[in-house]
Structures are given as C-alpha cells and as structure tokens.
Design brief:
alpha+beta, 6-stranded mixed β-sheet, 3-stranded antiparallel β-sheet, 42% helix, globular
Length: 374
C-alpha cells in the first residue's frame, strides 16, 4: 500500500492523461507482463504467472521442510530473511539454476536462487536440488566437498534425471574420465571437465547413503571436514582401509549394475535388501508433476577401473569410441547444460572488514570468473 501511494504522489506532478496511463501500467501490468510475485515464510518468488509463482513457492517450502527432516531429522528454523527465487519457465527450456549465499563467521545468509526450465522439471528436480543446497549450508555453515554437495543434492531429483546421470557415469568410466578418489576428495573447486564430477559424486553419495543412511553420511562429511583427513574418516565410518579400497569397492558396485546394498564389511560390499537407508521422501504432490517413480536397477556394464593415481583424461566427444554412450542434449537434461559456460555475477559481496566466504552451488560454479550451470 505504501509503495502504491508513493507512486501516486510522483504521478501527480505529470499531466492527467499521462498520469492515468502510467498508474495503470505500474499497478496492473507487472503481474501480466513483467512477472508475478508470491511470498512464503522463507521464499519470495518472481515467476511469469501468479499460478507458477505460487507452485514454485509452495514446492520450495515443502522441500525445505520435508527434505530437512529426511537429512537432519528435524525442520530448519525460519531464516531471518527470505530467499528470493527468480524463475524463468517455458516448455522445452533447458532446466538449471544457481544458488548463492554467504558464510560469515559461522553464519549463512544472502540467499539468492535463479532457476529456469519447464514447469515439470523445475518442480520435481531443480527446486528440490537447489533447496537441498540451502539445507546443507544452514546445517554445516561451511562449504561441503564439491563431490558430496552436488552428489547428495542430485539424489533428491526425479528418477528420470537420476537415470540420465547414471548413464552418463557409465560413459565417463568407459572413456577414461573417471576421477580417482584421492583427487576427488581433495577438490575445493570444480574441475574443467566438470560433468564427470557430477555423475561420480552422485553415484558415490548414493552408494554411501544406501549403506548406512543419510544421517550417517552427513556425520561422515562433518568428521572428514574437521581435519581433511578423509582416509581416517573413511576407515571410521565405512570401514574401508583407504580411499583406494573404497574406490575399488564402489567401482565393483557400479560394474554390477548398482545392486541394492546391505552394510559394508571390511572385505567389500554385502548384497542384501535394504529399504530404509536408501529410501527417498515423497515430496508433497503438485498437480500435473511426476514425483519419485520406482527405482529400476541397471544391468552390469563393462567399465574401465579408475587407476589409483590416474589423471582424468581430457573430454572425449560424445558418441565416439566403441563403448561410448551418448550424453543427453541440453534441452533434454539439466546435466548436459552444465558444459555451457556463462558469465558469472555473484549477487552478494563480502564486507570489507570480515572474513566472508561466498558460496554457490554447482549450478553456479564460479571457475575462472565463469558460471557453469547444469
């Protein structure tokens, strides 16, 4: 109401006809042309229509509540300031997004989320993924390892998108683009050949979560981040003698077609039915949007094991080589679009007199001042 009054006072200085036209545009046109807004407890949404804005806002709140319970055992407290979401929505639009926030002396703030894609992909994949980044940031109050942050966030997406990631992983492992665990666990930034990191990070996260559940997975990450001694954390939480031993067991699991897992043993993985650790929360239904579908396991695939000290090979053109698997095109997959660099614009700047870390999700991976969107 106050904003509208201010506009009227300003317009009163103009000719009557011009004032009437501008007043009509300012008060009524924005929701139809410039976008519509919607506010929830923790999000403000700008979208092309009021219905889309409400659907995205409600889904973001549902994801924030339900996924926090799934990962942390309880809902998050409300943020002091809502997270703005700017959504571009159109049928067939390549799906993706970026989320930025600031870590500052144990606090996290300055949320900003930009998402794009079809209505369906936004609601069942992009919004859950991006909101999970905010849950992890709120919980850990520090950056997670790149593989774990992106890998774990991908596990909450729709099964159709996860299947694409799994197919991509096979292609990368068959063409020498797998990343040795000794390198992957040490990564602080995204590599130039970033797509294998997404696929491998998701697969490793899913594998560890299936063994002992999400709570144990987050405890493992917290322990490892305390001293960056990941071999010690691996021994303590998953009973593998080394990162190489974990890598070889994971590689065998992928080769076998990702069978359902039981608890790990020091000698390897034990195959058994295990519904609880790997279960996925069913998010609140949104009309016309698919939620999690059954999880069909893949068939055994011939793979090239990752060498202990290997260096990831340069990118190989899609569809080349005798065993290559075609990677989905950008308009089909939110992952294929990750290879398109665009100029980065960080929306939050650190203060001059405080140690601030500006973080962004893999959708907004700042790398040589470029942004990589999935």
């Amino acid at each position: 109401m106050e904003a509208r009054i201010a506009r009227v006072v300003f317009l009163s200085t103009l000719p009557a006809v011009v004032s009437f036209i501008l007043l009509f545009v300012l008060l009524f046109v924005p929701s139809a042309v410039f976008g519509a807004g919607y506010r929830t407890a923790n999000f403000t949404v700008a979208a092309p229509s009021p219905q889309l804005a409400q659907e995205i806002g409600d889904q973001a709140e549902a994801c924030r509540a339900q996924l926090a319970v799934e990962w942390l055992g309880q809902e998050l407290p409300s943020w002091s300031q809502p997270c703005p979401i700017h959504a571009q929505v159109a049928p067939g639009m390549g799906a993706g997004g970026k989320t930025t926030f600031i870590f500052d002396r144990g606090e996290v703030y300055g949320w900003k989320m930009d998402i794009q894609g079809s209505r369906e992909r936004l609601l069942d994949s992009v919004v859950p993924h991006e909101v999970t980044h905010t849950i992890f940031a709120s919980h850990f109050r520090q950056p997670l390892p790149r593989w774990a942050d992106e890998g774990a966030c991908t596990t909450v997406e729709h099964r159709s998108e996860i299947s694409k990631q799994e197919r991509n992983l096979i292609a990368y492992l068959q063409t020498g683009r797998g990343i040795p665990f000794s390198q992957m666990f040490a990564m602080k930034e995204y590599p130039r050949d970033v797509l294998p990191l997404y696929a491998q990070g998701h697969s490793l996260s899913a594998w560890l979560i299936e063994q002992h559940g999400r709570k144990a997975f987050l405890e493992f990450l917290a322990d490892g981040m305390r001293d960056e001694n990941w071999p010690r954390a691996v021994r303590a939480h998953y009973r593998f003698d080394s990162l190489l031993a974990m890598q070889n067991n994971w590689n065998d699991w992928v080769r076998q077609g990702r069978p359902t897992l039981g608890p790990t043993t020091p000698g390897g993985v034990q195959l058994a039915a295990n519904a609880e650790p790997g279960s996925t929360t069913q998010l609140a239904a949104v009309p016309g949007v698919r939620l999690q579908s059954p999880d069909p396991r893949g068939k055994a695939s011939p793979l090239t094991p990752i060498a202990a000290g290997a260096v990831a090979a340069p990118p190989i053109p899609q569809g080349t080589g005798p065993t290559a698997i075609t990677v989905a095109s950008p308009n089909e997959s939110i992952y294929a679009a990750a290879g398109r660099p665009v100029k980065a614009v960080l929306h939050q700047e650190p203060t001059a007199n405080s140690p601030v870390f500006v973080s962004s999700s893999v959708y907004d991976s700042t790398h040589h001042r470029d942004t990589i969107r999935r």
